[in-house]
């Protein structure tokens, strides 16, 4: 039986997508208020689990069950192009799932529980019979949780060895909600194939302009809530920095809305960068609060 080249395997696992959950895990570590002294091996393992293992698994699962859609939208991908022959895409998805669980189990119950939850979401997002991605409202919610909220929670929980502070959970939830908009913009690249294969992404349901407007709103409102929360918690400087980052996003959003389909990928490389920088600012704002500081 033909075997895939290592380059095809790496392409299937999409290293570029690993950044978001790895960043969110790091934000969780920072926001926990716990000292990293003596915890660096666990932190490093958690970052690897969030990106090259769990996130990579979700990419392999998605590409296997999307192979017919990708044959229309992106035929150069490893599976539809034949560079990942036979059922190798499914074998990789299953193998990476098992590897992720083994690593998570070695890191303790908090990480194992979070990894298991994330992997279940990864499979039901792409695989029948649920296949959450068939509807953009549900599918984007699942991905946003896996990319932002879940790794943030995991990073904070593993450092605190307990359920994180309620303010940490609230901020993680808000940034997860905002990430729903990022996922909507990511769907713009596959509008044609989604429409032809019955996948009701938000650009298919609302049109590209309507989906872009919704994405901007969904990204902006949670950040406003974070800013208000930081001012209420006596962290005005951090709130102001996030406000400036949000103003920068508003400027970029205006350009996005002028040509949403053509500029969705551009915004995900510019406006989204400002969004994730705000996440780290919020994490540093939470740190002294959780430690009991002023």
Corresponding CATH architecture: Orthogonal Bundle
Total DSSP E strands: 0
Radius of gyration: 19 Å
CATH class: Mainly Alpha
Helix and strand sequence: HHHHHHHHHHHHH
CATH topology name: Farnesyl Diphosphate Synthase
What number is the mean pLDDT? 94
- Rough outline: globular
Question: Unreliable stretches, pLDDT < 50, 5 or more residues?
Answer: none
> How much helical structure, as a percent, in the residues?
over 70%
Report the biggest beta sheet as strand number plus sense, adding barrel if it closes.
none
> What is the count of DSSP helices, taking H or I runs of 4+ residues?
13
Question: What's the oligomerization state?
Answer: single chain
Classify the secondary structure makeup into a structural class.
mainly alpha
The rounded distance between the terminal residues' Cα atoms is 64 Å
Strand content: under 5%
Whole-number count of domains: 1
